[in-house]
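Objective 1b: paired records.
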Amino acid sequence: MKVLVVEDEAKTGDYLRQGLSEAGFVVDLARDGQDGLHLALTEAYDLVILDVMLPGLDGWQVLAGIRRAGRDVPVLFLTARDEVDDRVKGLELGADDYLVKPFAFSEFLARVRTQLRRGGKAKEAERLQAADLELDLMRRRVTRSGRRIELTAKEFSLLELLLRRQSEVLPRSLIASQVWDMNFDSDTNVIEVAIRRLRAKVDDGFEVKLIRTVRGMGYVLEAGE
């Protein structure tokens, strides 16, 4: 699942991005309100995590812009503003939850998962499927022909990306930015290794191979005819 974090404090933003990535989420990080609003309106997210005190547009304005545009993506405020009036304002503007800093990451992650379960998009797309391969987003479970497949967090995120955009050839640069949150380095083979390991788990032992390499372009998952 894809999450947008809008946080201007560098240490907190990096901490949230790393923790959510390790939990298996694809994470975009915006450092100010204007970039956060732009991403929220141009990309498809399952959840937005939003600070209040941001440069440019503040969190209230970002949330108002999201709701004004008709986006019903769940929004979790994560802020040091701990007054009751602030919490009420956030909820009245259309936030789905409000967590005050400092916070325990375990509680934060539990709230994230709760909002994803409640979110309309999560309910519509709890499972991704191609042929006999099924990925259960909420249970973090993968099966093929009814057989359970154990994946690491990165392998799960990689497979989710391939399934969400199945039949589309994904270049290595896109995979690097979406799954590893890094710029593609042609000298590294991290993507090739990850694809090879994912293939070994998803395709080996099955007659129909779903993941293939498009030479010079990237990788694609497709169910075939």
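Objective 1b, second protein:
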Amino acid sequence: MRLGISLIVFSLCMLAGFAEVRSQSKSGPIGFSLVDKNGNISKPADVRDTYQALGAYTVLDPKGNQMHMTYASPGTAEAYRKTGKFPDGTVLVKEVFGTQHAQMTTGDAHWASGTKVWFVLIKDEKGRYKENPLWGDGWGWALFKSDAPDKQVATDYKKDCQGCHIPAQATDWIYVKGYPVLASK
């Protein structure tokens, strides 16, 4: 079991490192192109191909293990390393997968299987959408489920989203310790 978890962590770290080399870009944050005039957030297309992989978490749960992979809009990691902050307009996308596993020569291997949900955050330093209950504490918050991937289903970020982020309040509501590409090189 311990070897299997170690292999998962190693594999995900390797994946995150490879993705950084492959997808790092000099272009700036694009977040507000995903927002309509009322503050409704759309899920960006082609996240796996055009965004930078920040890192992954494995969540062990008796009801079903999960893998959480987080991506950032191009240029985010470089900007974060320079300033220690997410620039205005940064887009973060967390894709939550179920898992499958099998005994392999390397041990009990687990891998991502089937997207369950996507969480999308857009950094908003200026408080642009004060009247929209999905915007606050410096971010726009959105949730998309796999059975309707283009329909945003959260209604109030304080009820639907923020509760999971309370332990990360000191780091701008983001679990940065799980994202090795944000660390200074």
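The CA atoms of residues 13 and 55 lie 7 Å apart. DSSP finds four helices and seven strands in the chain.
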